[in-house]
Design a protein that fits this description.
- It is built from eleven helices and no strands.
- By secondary structure, it is mainly alpha-helical.
- The protein folds into two domains: about 90 residues, no CATH class; about 55 residues.
- The mean pLDDT is about 80.
- It is found in: Nucleus, Nucleolus.
- Belongs to the NOP16 family.
Amino acid sequence: MKIRKNHKGKHYRYSVNRKTLNKTRSSTGKIKDPALKKMWVEGQRVGTNFSEMGLAKDPNKAIAIPSYRKDRLHAAKIVNGFVEEELDEEERLLLGIKKAPVEEGPKRGHVVEELEQLASERADPEFRLPKGVVKELSYFLNKYKFNYKGMVTDRKNYGQLTWRQFRLKIRRFMSIPEQFNVYLEQKNLTADVKPDWPEYESDSEWK
């Protein structure tokens, strides 16, 4: 029995935007970093752009894994006289050999310096507790103040936290002035000042 092929006619998809489709196919993606975006050359390849900036496209190629076999082969070639040993500057001067050509740095090497400077700058801590946690801790502070062992026995201790965990959470809450000062204002207390509450079986809370 002869198998018949189904020659289905091709249809033009009118619903597809060809301009957008070609852009997505030819695009290399959006560059989010402002320093890289400013120095990126659109006409060049990705590898050329990276090498001119002093960056590595593929870290496995830039910093290769050391090969013991290659090192041994190179040492054997030097011993047998197949390869000349690398000379220092003093030895080159004594033998009258010209200096080896100095490798020039990347054309846009300042990009690396800018990125290193940005990385070295310490960002401001933007950690904030969720609203639910702030509300929960405010409830416990209003009711028990710094009596952490009293918080453990409360009915609203759904997470069954220990008194040490309560102390840790409240310390974290007190270390965020943007949130803790709001709580102090609600209690008509002075901001950035430790509340005059007695502590129970705990060391000083205020740093």
